Structures are given as C-alpha cells and as structure tokens.
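[recover] target loaded
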C-alpha cells in the first residue's frame, strides 16, 4: 500500500500539483491531553508539554506512556487539537483534498484503526511510518511536523520547505530548532496558512 501511495504522489508531483504533508499526532491530534491524563493516573504527577526537553523524555520518565500509542482503546480517547478540524477544512478549501496527505509515525498495532479514523473524519490519505524516515514520503511536498528530527530529515533529504509546528509555543521538545531559508517555526494554524501561502 505504501508503494502505491508513493507512486500516486509521484504522479501528482509530475502533473504539477502542490502537495502538503501533515504530521498527525501533535499538530492535529492532541496526544498531550492523553499524556497528561495517563501521567496523572499512573504517576500522580501533573504534566505539561513544555517540560519535555528532548524526544526520549517521556520514555525515560514515564515508562508506561507507550500504552497511550500502542493500545487503540487508549489512543482513540485523545481529542483533536482545538481548531484542527477547521484548519483541515480550510486547507481543503484552498488546495483541495487531493493536495493533502497525512504522514504519521504509528506502531503497527494501531495502524488499521488509525487509518480508518483519519479517513472517516478528515477524508485524507494516510501513510504510516514505523522505522523508516518520513522524507521517503515527503519529497516534493511541504512538511508540517512538530518533531525536529523529522523536519531536519526533510530538509536534508529533499529540496522542499518544512514547517516546524510548535502549538502556542508549548512544545518543549522542539525548542532547539533554528529555522533556515527553507523552513519556519509556526505556533498557530493561522501562521501555517500564511506560511503555506508564501511558500507553495
């Protein structure tokens, strides 16, 4: 299925389409809400995304946090980020649904259900990444992602623009990223829309 979607993307790019690759967990789906609930219930601690200073922080400090991502019954309880659904609709209005793809890191255990949820609610094609680099599937597109390593990988392995999404400036894990000519840090959906308008 991934190979078929990669071929479809190449056809779109060959036809001159502008394509936007969106990360799901973080920019669209509010896993931080789920993390806070899990940490409070299992560790009796209050949690905020600003405390996460590096990507492995959650594993190191709250080992059972992986239950939020690997178990569908837990994962599906997370809400969408406030304004995310309206943001997606605006993207569809401006660029068309065929110009959008979700490229999301997902454990195999939830991929089938996650795909169904995203396609049912958002109506957007989904590509799941497990161990491979996202840039395999984002070449020729603008990538919107909250993870520094994904944006850096995209910038190093494509000639395309990348938007690091730092929701309201509260994502502690991506503060070390310094934008270059082909990238930007955006904290709101309005900023993302403005950035896309300038760089697509």
């Amino acid at each position: 299925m991934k190979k078929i979607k990669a071929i479809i993307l190449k056809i779109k790019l060959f036809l001159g389409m502008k394509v936007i690759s969106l990360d799901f967990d973080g920019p669209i789906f509010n896993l931080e809400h789920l993390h806070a609930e899990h940490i409070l219930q299992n560790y009796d601690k209050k949690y905020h995304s600003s405390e996460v200073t590096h990507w492995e922080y959650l594993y190191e400090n709250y080992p059972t946090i992986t239950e939020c991502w690997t178990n569908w019954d837990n994962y599906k309880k997370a809400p969408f980020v406030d304004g995310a659904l309206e943001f997606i609709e605006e993207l569809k209005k401006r660029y068309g649904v065929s110009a959008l793809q979700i490229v999301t890191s997902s454990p195999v255990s939830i991929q089938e259900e996650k795909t169904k949820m995203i396609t049912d609610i958002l109506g957007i094609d989904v590509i799941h990444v497990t161990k491979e680099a996202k840039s395999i599937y984002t070449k020729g597109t603008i990538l919107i992602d909250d993870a520094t390593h994904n944006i850096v990988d995209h910038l190093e392995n494509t000639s395309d623009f990348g938007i690091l999404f730092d929701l309201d400036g509260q994502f502690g894990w991506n503060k070390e990223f310094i934008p270059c000519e082909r990238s930007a840090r955006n904290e709101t959906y309005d900023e993302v829309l403005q950035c896309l308008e300038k760089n697509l």
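[recover] notes: The domain at 2-30+78-199 is CATH 3.40.50.1000 (Rossmann fold).
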